[in-house]
Amino acid sequence: MIKVENLEFSYTKKPFIKDINFEVKKGEIFGFLGPSGAGKSTLQKILTGLITNYSGSAIVNHTESKNHDDRFYENIGLDFEFPSLYEKLTARQNLKFFGSLYNKKLRDTEELFHKVGLGYDMDKKVFEYSKGMKSRLNFIKALLHDPDILFLDEPTSGLDPSNSRDMKNIILEEKHKGKTIILTTHNMNDAAELCDRVAFIVDGRVKALDTPHNLIMSKGATKLKYSYYDKKEIIRQCPLNKTVEDSKLLDLIQQNKLLSIHSSEPTLNDIFIEVTGRGLQ
Amino acid sequence: MRTRLRSLIIGDIQFQFKYGFYFVYTVFTFFYICLLFAFPATIREKAAILMIYSDPAAMGLFFMGSIVLFEKSQRVLNSIAVSPVKVSEYILSKVVSLGLIGTVVGVLIAFAAGNRNIILVIIATFMGSVIFSLFGLMIASKIQTLNQFMVATIPFEILCLVPSIFYLFGYQKPFMLLHPGIIVIRMMEGKNIENIAFELLMLGIWILMIYMVTYRIVKKMFQSVGGVKL
């Protein structure tokens, strides 16, 4: 669905994005993870045809992005991080207007409203909406023309846990319908839960690309954490595959003196910091 | 008319209505017509032409800044830029929506002043409005605040309005007949009807040239939405 080869782009003489290669298959959720200013938005702009003076290749839905015509956008849906809506129009009027820009048959608007919990607010003006409601409306605006490829930029940002859960369920539902989804996020939990594969992007380059599970397993071993009492509570840890070599742990087990014991896997965030040497801001 | 262009024009009219443009122009029309009757009958028609040319026709130059700035601040442009909307459709929609209201107001003022060249007033007001709106869009695409827009429109206002006012009040030289504003005024006056085809052609050429520059600038604005400077 998306194939990027030797992609390079620069705003100045110094390359900003360099040597980017990846492929996204139909029905896959692919995550772009990286700190602010890493090049995620620029990459998204290239894939959505807004930046055309790049070198290399970025094929989206069988079209070289820089050579797209207006039909290109019939099959692309973009959910921006910040709402892009007419504030003085109602939610329903907004969807009616944006829907009218497409030649495709639209999805059932009312069903979409109900899906994101806005069923009773569709005739309210957008300026009366809370931040979370605007995010949800923005999200269904991207789904309205039933695009094959969805670009979602921080889709759960500003949502309470319950709405965030609903949103993630809808994203997974769209994936199961065969939609290809590009997710740009800072939220490592969302990425680990939703993405089939993720790319860590730092300084305009892909530092790692794999499934979240493989990244976690290949870069960090699962550890065993335990605690015991020796004048005060002491916490120790050892790699799970080396428990037999930890004589202290074996003694504590034999003497039945353990206070707690549990395994802990590294998170995607730990792996990101390990691979890139930086945290997400 | 193509469906998408029609949707855009309806959307723009709806937007202009919601933001009170239509209300403002209803009040202005009433005010202008009242003012018109304060002038002696002998210069009433000339005054009406000046009013139409400098306001309803020039509406695009004044209002385009707020229209585009609203779209920028509400990030609506981001969504339009990644939709099937062509740059040409975006421009046409803005120009036609403002041209329609400007022409209606212009016709009402002309009719009140006793101008009987209503067909020519319609054509001239609409074409004049297209020129002003294109200039307005050109400037609005480049600016970030309303103050910047107000300042940037001043040279365009001088270039468009001053020669036309001079011409209307007697300073008339042959080379001035190439000025688009003067062509518009002459059409409203019903002068030189035998050469109307030439005047329409001249206005068409002006519009095409200004459109081509506006197209390049708006295209760049579409590419730069979301903070990317190219």
TrEMBL record, chain A:
Keywords: ATP-binding, Nucleotide-binding, Transport. Pfam families: ABC_tran. The keyword ATP-binding applies. SMART domains: AAA. One of its GO terms (molecular function) is ATP hydrolysis activity. Residues 2-228 form the ABC transporter domain. PROSITE patterns: ABC_TRANSPORTER_1, ABC_TRANSPORTER_2. It comes from the Bacteria. The keyword Nucleotide-binding applies. This is ABC transporter ATP-binding protein.
UniProtKB/TrEMBL annotation, chain B:
Pfam families: FLQE3_permease. InterPro entries: FLQE3_permease. The keyword Glycosyltransferase does not apply. Keywords: Membrane, Transmembrane, Transmembrane helix. It comes from the Bacteria. The keyword Transmembrane applies. The chain crosses the membrane at residues 21-41, 47-70, 91-112, 118-137, 149-169, 196-214. This is ABC transporter permease. It comes from Mobilitalea sibirica.
